[in-house]
Amino acid sequence: MLELAREVGDDGLLATALVFIQGSHLIAARHREGAEVAQQVIEVAERTKNPAALADAHHLTARTLFMTGRGADALTELN
Known about the structure:
By secondary structure, the protein is an all-alpha fold. The protein has five helices and no strands. It has helices spanning 2-8, 11-27, 31-48, 51-67, 71-78. The longest helix is centred in the middle third of the chain and has 18 residues, at 31-48. It is flat. The model has no long low-confidence stretch (mean pLDDT 92).
């Protein structure tokens, strides 16, 4: 799905694919990779000027921060 989204230039589909990839990194405790993917989601959301997608992207970053013991940073990310 990720390659297809990039190929057709569909940022909505791209964001969806990246969210699922980030979730798989989170479940597998690959937090560095998850943080990198979350940043990609933020970039897509900013590019599309989609406030809901941007909020979701920051939530992904906060989850990663929380799972790596950075609870205070996670709360800051959510504000």
